[in-house]
Structures are given as C-alpha cells and as structure tokens.
Amino acid sequence: MSYKILDCTLRDGGYYTDWKFDTKLVRQLVKALDNNNVNIIELGYKSPVIGGPYRKCNDGFISSIINFKTKADLAFMIDVKDYVDNNKVNTSLIKDIIKPSSIFKVCRVAAKYNEIQYIPEIVKILQDLGYDVICNLMAISKTLKEEVKAYTNITQDLNLKAIYIADSYGALYPKDVKHILQNKSINGIHTHDNMGLAFANCLEAINQGATYIDGTLTGMGRGVGNVTTEQLLTHRSEIKSDLLDCIDKFNKMKKYYGWGTNALYHKAGKEHIHPLYMQDLNQSNLSNKQLVEVTDNLSECHLYDKSKLESLKQQRAVVVIPARYKSSRFPGKPLAKINGKEMILHVAEKAEQAVGKENVYIATENSNISNIVKKSGYKVVITSDSCLTGTDRVAEASYEINADIFVNVQGDEPMIDPNDIKKAIKLKQDNSNYVINCMSKLHKDEDPSDKKIPKIICDLQNNLVYSSRNSLPGSKDSKVNNIMKQVCIYAFSKNQLHQFHDNKKTPLEYYEDIEIIRCIEKGIKVKMMEVNKISYAVDYPSDIKIVTKLIN
C-alpha cells in the first residue's frame, strides 16, 4: 500500500477551537505524527479571516512552536475565496500574508467549482514563492461529471504535488468514489464521515490508485469530522504508542466538542447540508425534537449562512420541578397521593405536556422521590439538603443541565396548565432580560387575607412591583376587586438563576417568605404573566382534599 497520509488535525480541527491549541499538545502531536511516518502535516490556514494563531500560521510563530526537524513536510491551506476581490486575484494580499517558503514546504489551495478559474494564477504565485502546491476541489458530491473534468483540465498541467477532491458534505458512497476516480488526474481525497463511510471511501480511493489520503486524529474536523489518521496508519502499517498518547488527549476534546457521526449528521450527508450547520446544532442546547425540526428545514442548504441558522434555532427550554421532602408545613408533600397518584407525578405529567418528557427534570434531595419519578421515566437531579427555596434548588440543578430557559414549576401545583408553561416560555424568549412569573385573579373561594397566598402588585406594563402574604393592594374606602395572586411558574435564564442563588435570603424575602422578592431586592427585573385557569397550591395536608375535588 503505497499511499501517503496528509494529516490536517490542526487545520480542520480549528473549526472547533477557533484555531487555538495548547503549545505542548501541538508539539506532542507533530512529533508523534512524524514518528508514525505521516507524510504531510497541515498545521492550519494562512488566511485574512479572523481566528486564532493556527488560522494565520505566521512563519515566526510556527517556527517557535515546531522548533525541531521533521521528516514530514509541513503545510498550510488557503481558500481561493479569501484572495479574490471583484472577480480578480488579489496578488498583493497573497504576498502580504504568504511569505517565501521557509518552515512550510506545501500549500494546499481549496476551491469550489465556481472558483476554479482563479487556480492557475494563484498556483503560479505560490510556486514562485517556493511552495509545492496541492489543489483541492470542495463539495465534490454537488459537482457534475463535466465540472470535475473541467477542474482536472485546468489543473493537470500546473505541475501540482496532488489534485484532490473533498467530500465536504460526507455524501459519497464507495461506488461514487470509484466513478469519480476513473478520472486518473485525481490522486487525493478528503473524506467526511457523516454516514460512517469515510474509511470505506478512502479504501476505495486507494484501490482506484489515489496516492494522497487525508485524515485527522480521532476524526477531529468541521462538522462530523473526517476519517481518522489512526485508521489510515493502522491500515498502512503499525501504530506507535506516542500517537496513542495523543489520541487519549484528543478523545477528551472529542467528548467536550462532540464531533463524530450520529443520526442527524447522517441525515445531513444524505441531504447535502453544510457541515457548519450541523456542527452548530450539535453543540446547541436544543432538544432532540427541536433538532429534527430544524434539520428538516435545512435540506440542500449547501451554502452556510449563520443568520439563517439563527432564525431556525430555538432556545432549549426545560422544566425543573423542585421537590423537597422535608417541608415544614407538610413533610413528604411531593409523595402525597391525589386520586391514587403521587402529587409530584401529577405536576411532572403537566410539564411533559408542555415541553416533552425529555425536557422535564425533578430536583430533589430525597431518594424516595427520586425512585418514584425515575420509575415513571423522568430525569432526576439530586440536590443538597441546604436549598432554602425551590428556586435555589432549581439553580443548583441548572449546573447539571444544558438549557437556555429554565422553567421552575413548583411540585405542589398539581393543577398547573401546560399551556401556561408554554406561554411563559414564549414570553421569556421575547423578554430575555426579565424573569417571568405568573399570576391569576383570586377565585371566589379564596380569602385575600389568607397568609398562605402570595398577592401580587404590578405596574402598568405588568412588571412586578411587590408581593406580600398580606392583602394587596389595600384600600381605605372600599373592597378591592381583581386581587392578583402568584402562580408558581417561573422562567429564568441560567445566569439569572445563578444571580438569584447564594444560599441566603434577602431581608424582605425573609419577612414575607416569598422567594420572588429576592429578585426585586437584587435588581433582577420580573415580568408577570396573567393566567386564567384555576390553580391551587398544596401547602397543608388539608389542601389535598380541596385539590382532589377541584381536579375531579
């Protein structure tokens, strides 16, 4: 097997790290690749585009990092589009950024089909600067047979080191590779692994006579990533322990950044969705349902437009239900049964109707509560015994949950309306700087002087002014109509939860025993949303009979 391996871990992997890498790791990687007989090591780009040091690959910087001799040729890549202005090659920009060959031996020139007319002029400049040049045609699965022919016609007489194709969307099958490489001018391939076929496509390319194969360590690369360098090395010869040490370190990065094939990347390959869309989505906090909905709207989006993605993406909202066993007024309250079912499950089922089961979490300090909800398929976050309020418990749980919006639905509100949860999420999306809390009118059976009911005062824009267990507002002349009470649905961002949470009640919060007052005292703005359905919180054992009657 006479193929040569080009490793582009740092160049392609930079899409995850903004082309910033630890110096010790880079040195370890380059030494290990060189020791394992990788032929070309592509360290990054030379580009006018904003990014970290491996997006620029300045010669002095690279020489300070790679301060040792390598058998492998060191390389960088340029994108044709970065050096074309008003349909002309910007020669002065190329010469400003790319200096005569020194530490680098090879330059790879990447172009889409509509840019290939600029290749000869750019190649000539680079060769005059002393570089061996590789050309790389991107998005090959969207390129017609006659266009591939035009690409090889324009490049075959340029004295190139290699003529590459790149499966940018990970959409090729081995039969496609076989068909394309019947054009014998092509002798290099860069594969993406959307459909788990990157290695198989490389093997087919080798069978068809390709002499240059790209790989990255652990497959690190834009979107789903690439065929792994370790696969190519192991197939060609043995792999040495120093590279295995590097693989261990890159696997930790892989766990953090999340490259690697999955069902949605497979879908993206089949439907020619640009890899950066999928990379962004894969690192988002969207639920699985939302991910499917977004990708359904991205079919054939082979040009990356970040603004389009932003318009499609939704913030991930979760419901976290704080469930404390050691309630001072009603110990074991979450497990009290209503119509034969624990109250916490009544609340969880209502939350599930609003956001889906995968987005419902119960935050509790108690193993009995945890066991009950887990048996019904709900997620649990075990929190400490020291949480002062339900919102403190949600704040503690938020460190364990990836989400944009956290809806706190109290575990003693079994009559909560799922539509109110949805409305609170929507209002939060539209008012990101506010915490959202709900309120409703006292119903006829409720006493305004009842101390267990927090009453609400708002301004004319429904911003919270104050809350009290006393009757609010007061009147010296007559009875007040339409007194508003708090309904315990809250919507926070993670930052707002962390700002709220400090294991200490604020003075007015302490006196009133109403946690939303802490937001007022800390200067966190709260917008109230009125809901119409009957809601009744369970504070005492006697409330179980009332709620059961209302539900029935």
List the helices and strands and how they pair.
Elements: E1 4-7, H1 9-17, H2 23-35, E2 40-45, H3 53-56, H4 59-65, E3 73-79, E4 84-85, E5 88-89, H5 91-97, E6 106-111, H6 119-128, E7 132-137, H7 145-155, E8 162-166, H8 174-180, E9 188-190, H9 198-207, E10 212-215, H10 229-236, H11 241-257, H12 263-270, H13 275-282, H14 288-296, H15 306-312, E11 317-323, E12 337-338, E13 341-342, H16 343-355, E14 360-364, H17 367-375, E15 379-382, H18 390-398, E16 405-409, H19 418-430, E17 435-441, E18 455-458, E19 464-468, E20 484-493, H20 494-500, H21 507-512, H22 517-522, E21 526-530, H23 541-551
Parallel strand pairs: 1-2, 1-10, 2-3, 3-6, 6-7, 7-8, 8-9, 9-10, 11-14, 11-16, 14-15, 17-21
Antiparallel strand pairs: 4-5, 12-13, 16-20, 17-20, 18-19, 18-20
Helix pairs in contact: 2-11, 8-9, 16-19, 18-20
Q: Main traits of this protein?
A:
single chain, 552 residues, alpha/beta, TIM Barrel, Spore Coat Polysaccharide Biosynthesis Protein SpsA, Chain A, 3 domains, nine-stranded mixed β-sheet, 23 helices
Mean pLDDT comes to 88
Q: How many individual helices? A: 23
Beta-strand proportion: 15-25%
Shape type: elongated
Helix content: 25-40%
**Separation of the first and last Cα atoms:** 76 Å
Oligomer: single chain
Structural class of the helices, strands and pairings?
alpha/beta
Number of strands: 21
C-alpha-based Rg, rounded: 31 Å
Low-confidence residue ranges: none
Number of domains: 3
CATH class bucket of the largest domain: Alpha Beta
CATH architecture of the largest domain: Alpha-Beta Barrel
